[in-house]
Amino acid sequence: MSSSPKDKTIFIHPMAVVESEKIGQGTRIWGWSHVQADVVVGEHCNIGEHCFLENGVCVGNRVVIKNGISLWEGTRIADDVFLGPHAIFTNERFPRSGFGKSFEPIAIDKSASIGAGTVILPGVRIGRYATVGAGSVVTRDVHEYTLVLGNPARFNGWMCVCGLRLTPPNSDTNEITCVCGRRYEVEDERIKIDGLVKSKKTPCFVIPTKVGIQ
Question: Rounded to whole angstroms, how far apart are CA atoms 156 and 199?
């Protein structure tokens, strides 16, 4: 259950441990979750049961964090992100108990969606409006507007802002129109949305080889 944008009441379940005073209006934190003191959580977020947010984590507005997720020091979650249940975040590439730590924080950009049971390796950045399929293992950065699947996660298509998967572009015009009405164009290794270039580094969608994140 998520809070209404008009509801400014902060809800903290009696069985949750919330040490932070930086919790935004309208946010809900459910039972058996622990939010440490040096954590920032934005407005109208929903943090499910059995979650742990370590000191140094920053969560934006309207973020959904489903059950069983731990976010470790340095993790940055932008606005409108969805984190599916039991997604695994890491921040040490070569962990060793008793030795000095070298953190590589994970960053999830605006409106990205992370599927249930996904594993994200240290230092990875997930781009805006990207989607990671359930159970994937993400070993490198994910470009915005892309869908990645598998172990390791590989490019598998384009995603619309609305969250629907886009069909391959018309071979004559390189144009894509989502059922929601948004228009896209893939050209010269750039993707254009309603005529505006959104990314100069997005991999080109080539059929059927699907050139992209390998």
Answer: 18
